[in-house]
Design a protein that fits this description.
The complex is a heterodimer of chains A (518) and B (330).
Chain A lengths: L1 H15 L1 H6 L12 E8 L9 E6 L5 E5 L5 E5 L4 E7 L8 E2 L2 H6 L1 E5 L5 E9 L2 E5 L1 E2 L2 E2 L4 E6 L5 E5 L5 E5 L4 E7 L17 E6 L4 E3 L14 H33 L6 H17 L4 H29 L4 H23 L15 E3 L2 E3 L1 H23 L1 H11 L1 H6 L4 H26 L6 H16 L4 H17 L9 H15 L13
Parallel strand pairs in A: 1-8, 9-17
Antiparallel strand pairs in A: 1-4, 2-3, 2-5, 5-7, 6-8, 9-14, 10-11, 12-13, 12-15, 15-16, 18-19
Helix pairs in contact in A: 1-6, 4-8, 4-9, 4-11, 4-12, 4-13, 5-6, 5-7, 5-11, 5-12, 6-11, 8-9, 8-11, 9-11, 12-13, 12-14, 13-14
Chain B lengths: L2 H12 L2 H19 L7 H18 L4 H23 L4 H20 L4 H4 L5 E2 L3 H5 L7 E4 L2 E4 H25 L2 H11 L1 H6 L4 H27 L1 E2 L6 H14 L6 H25 L10 H22 L17
Antiparallel strand pairs in B: 1-4, 2-3
Chain lengths: 518, 330
């Protein structure tokens, strides 16, 4: 049994590595002219530090070389051999407002030069707290405008004038609250502060923060849509998002219905779909073909999970809570495997990236959005019909209702569950592929969505297929349309708060049967 | 291959503040999950409330450290009540989802730019440690003991942290051998049976959620004091899952499980990272397969794998007792 499980786990990992095969590894640039250390010196705000004197010393032996950083803050030091080096910065050579942290002054930074390629090191220097900004009227920078910064308690006051690019920066002595003001009288001819904005702001500067300050001038340049137009656009976008959520939610709900398992790794199935499609598409496969292949591969991944992991666990009579924690483990494993394979940066498909929007009255939609909504809708209707009218659908509903009774009446429960996993994997994969079109492909895109998928599923009623559909549509609409009133960074908060509220008022969900869920 | 460096880094990690912080969080989870069977996936939320309670109390609202501490504890209790009232009557999986969602809501709020005037936004909140450091008996120098190095400030945080851990362990030990603790274990084994004996299961679960949540908050405070900053990204769901891995590794429902788990977890994490770095530096691993960024990701792939394998083959962890832990949802 145990050996079998181990073997099964290996098979599962193998399938998850399918993506890896398609991806290939990033080519490492081998250094031709001897070992080199390339470094960059940045401040805490991420800006390059120019003209800093750098000393590179070998950790063992007495090699030492002096270099200076260029305008990009980078330096290149030729070193005698691969190995460990210590990099120090001369504090006297760094510009005003930037300082070398004590730790770095004492110990320097460690750098490693691997054999056969260039070593890299990044030194982060501490930047003194400052207030800064760029003054411009439309696209035209405002030069020579006096900006004054004073601390609220009056212990600090300093002024500066903006340079040719309109940029200004004032270093302050310590974190705290500061007042920033410009003199509206001293502005160039014809430049007015924008109506409704203040020329005096009070801001909090936190430790090692470079607080950006925005003053606006002239007419507002934002193209203001009317409230109804904006709302219409968001409703359509919300529907699209809701349909894509519904694809993933349907699988999650079917799996829960038939096995009772809450699959916290379902988000990674979404990401897997997007990543496989991205890998295939960017290596030259036509997007449509790549999507079809992705559906097959994610279906296989779902099936392999069931056969290799969940079925053996059920046979061992592992409890559902234990299995839920296993899904957490699987989710972490898969997420970091994706990170390992594709890196942290967001990726785009090769095809259909830039498309001009088509106007439908006030609503603008790219053709790819229309297609993905249509595909999602067709697939969802298809699955709904399958659940309602086919033999396997009837069997699925029977297993959801009562697995033992279903088994007793001659239904092969394991086969039904396998079918559900295959379908669920494929649906999540499709959801990922389509989401990758509108946002970008990222290793943790699935985990970010997972809670919204849960919200949809719970809103509709855990385990009910149609509930998942309706719930996801509501959540998608709600999340998107709520950005009319609340900042978009908080849009998920609203959906999650609704999730908690629903559990308070109607734990069985909108479409769930009223039964004791305790 | 510099084995000396690898081992000294590993040793330094074992006595570092991360072990203490995660240990406190895992002690809380042990009360929730190990003893009561509550599947709290929102421990990071309790940690965030602890960290931000103190940080905002001092930095934003200008309270003294003592008041800020009490205010943080107050909010922790409030969070436990808010989470518990709707969900403790529900099934385990609902509690898991809701706590995870609540922790995420808190993180989004603390990160939000629109509230950054109070919370510091995604940069985190600083400037609250001075009063804490004035109590430190350790002068501000670098301390060295063999391969171990630490600063006076960190040493103070670690000392306070281990004192909290000691109090926590004593409390857990005393509570769990009391009649109250036996009721908790009863709830874990069979809620209906306990209810049929006339015990108010809901009230017991709520008490467990509050006490465990407080230890989570203490863990969060250690995070904040050690880094001199309350940072929202420290309190992502991943933090909760690491605490779970630690708890299950050490052995749930064991008093010393979280301590053993935290030490072993961090030692392995740091050892693997340093070993891989050295292996890459020594050219043992071709850089086409793994570069040093990927090396630190391998650790987390392994965390996921270890969590799965533990749950499948050894749910009682290294030191646990299998009879103590017959996990099941319904």
């Amino acid at each position: 049994m145990r050996r079998r499980l181990t073997a099964a786990l290996c098979v599962l990992l193998g399938v998850m590595a399918v993506a890896a095969v398609a991806l290939g590894a990033a080519p490492a640039s081998a250094q031709e002219n001897g070992p080199t250390l390339i470094g960059s010196v940045l401040d805490t705000g991420g800006r390059p530090v120019e003209g800093a004197a750098i000393t590179v010393t070998a950790a063992q032996g007495d090699f030492s070389i002096d270099v200076t950083t260029d305008a990009q803050g980078t330096f290149i030091a030729a070193v005698p051999e691969a190995g460990l080096y210590r990099v120090t910065v001369d504090p006297a050579t760094v510009p005003t407002g930037v300082s070398v942290p004590n730790r770095m002054q004492e110990k320097g930074a460690r750098a490693n030069v691997p054999a056969g390629e260039a070593g890299t090191v990044t030194l982060e220097l501490r930047r003194q707290e400052s207030l800064r900004g760029t003054l411009s009227n439309g696209n035209e920078p405002l030069e020579g405008v006096e900006v004054t910064v004073s601390s609220v308690d009056g212990s600090f006051e300093e002024s500066t004038t903006s340079d040719a690019d309109g940029a200004w920066e004032i270093f302050v002595s310590e974190p705290g609250r500061y007042q920033v003001s410009i003199d509206p009288e001293a502005l160039p001819e014809g430049v007015e502060p924008r109506a409704g904005t203040s020329t005096e702001l009070t801001l909090q500067v936190f430790s090692s923060q470079q607080r950006a300050v925005l003053f606006s001038f002239g007419e507002s340049d934002r193209n203001i849509l009317s409230f109804t137009d904006q709302a219409m656009q968001l409703v359509v976008e919300g529907l699209r998002f809701g349909l894509l959520l519904a694809l993933a939610a349907l699988g999650l709900s079917l799996i829960f219905g038939t096995t009772g398992l809450v699959n916290f790794a379902h988000g990674e199935m979404i990401a897997l779909g997007a990543i496989i499609a991205w890998a295939l598409n960017t290596s030259g496969v036509n997007f449509i073909l790549a999507t079809l292949l992705t559906l097959v591969l994610t279906a296989l991944a779902g099936g392999a999970q069931e056969l290799g992991l969940w079925r053996p666990l059920r046979r061992r009579k592992t409890g559902l809570v234990a299995m839920m924690i296993v899904t957490i483990g699987l989710s972490i494993l898969a997420r970091f495997l994706f990170l390992y394979l594709i890196g942290a940066q967001p990726r785009s498909y090769a095809d259909y990236v830039t498309q001009a929007g088509i106007q439908f009255g006030p609503v603008s939609l790219a053709p790819r959005d229309i297609y993905s909504m249509a595909i999602a809708l067709i697939v969802l209707i298809g699955v709904a019909l399958l659940v309602l009218f086919t033999r396997i659908g009837k069997a699925m509903r029977a297993v959801s209702d009562n697995p033992s009774l279903a088994a007793a009446s001659g239904i092969d429960v394991n086969r039904v569950i396998l079918f559900v996993w295959v379908t669920g994997g494929s649906l999540a994969g499709l959801s990922g592929v389509l989401l990758g079109l509108s946002q970008q492909v990222k290793f943790d895109m699935g985990f970010d969505l997972l809670l919204l998928v849960f919200a949809g599923v719970i809103l509709g009623g855990l385990g009910t297929a149609f509930g998942a559909l309706a719930g996801s549509l509501v959540v998608g609409l709600f999340v998107t349309v709520s950005t009319l009133w609340i900042p978009s960074e908080l849009k998920n908060v609203a959906a999650l708060a609704v999730l908690i509220l629903i559990l308070l008022i109607r734990p069985q969900g909108l479409l769930g049967r009223s039964e004791r869920v305790g | 291959m510099d084995w000396g460096l690898i081992f000294s880094n590993t040793l330094n990690a074992v006595v570092g503040w991360e072990v203490v912080a995660y240990c406190l969080a895992a002690i809380g989870l042990n009360i929730h999950f190990g003893y009561t069977g509550l599947l709290n996936f929102g421990q990071a939320g309790f940690m965030a409330v602890g960290a931000y309670g103190v940080a905002m109390g001092v930095s934003t609202f200008g309270l003294g450290l003592g008041w800020a501490f009490l205010w943080a504890i107050g909010f922790t209790v409030l969070l436990a009540l808010l989470l518990g009232i709707p969900t403790l009557r529900l099934r385990a999986d609902y509690l898991a989802i809701v706590t995870l969602a609540a922790a995420e809501i808190l993180k989004l709020f603390f990160r939000s730019a629109s509230l950054s005037e109070y919370t510091g936004g995604s940069d985190g909140l600083q400037g609250f440690v001075n009063e804490f450091r004035t109590f430190s008996p350790f002068p501000k120098t670098t301390y060295e003991l063999g391969p171990l190095t630490t600063s006076g400030n960190t040493l103070w945080v670690i000392t306070v942290g281990w004192a909290m851990v000691a109090i926590g362990l004593l409390l857990v030990w005393l509570l769990m051998r009391s009649p109250w603790g036996r009721v908790l274990k009863g709830i874990r084994e069979d809620e209906e049976a306990v209810r049929s004996l006339g015990k108010n299961v809901f009230a017991y679960k709520m008490q467990s959620l509050i006490i465990g949540g407080m230890f989570g908050a203490f863990g969060g405070m250690i995070f904040a004091f050690a880094q001199a900053s309350a940072n929202p990204d420290n309190f992502s769901p991943q933090t909760t899952f690491f605490a779970y891995t630690i708890l299950i590794l050490g052995g749930a429902a064991r008093v010393f499980g979280p301590v053993a788990g935290a030490v072993i977890f961090w030692a392995s994490l740091v050892f693997i990272e340093n070993f891989l770095f050295s292996a890459i530096a020594a050219g043992w691993v071709p850089s086409a397969i793994m570069d040093s960024t990927q090396a630190s990701q391998v650790r987390f792939i392994l965390v996921g794998l270890v969590l799965m394998l533990l749950m499948i083959f050894r749910p009682q962890g290294i030191f646990g007792d299998k009879r103590e832990l017959q996990l099941d949802a319904r």
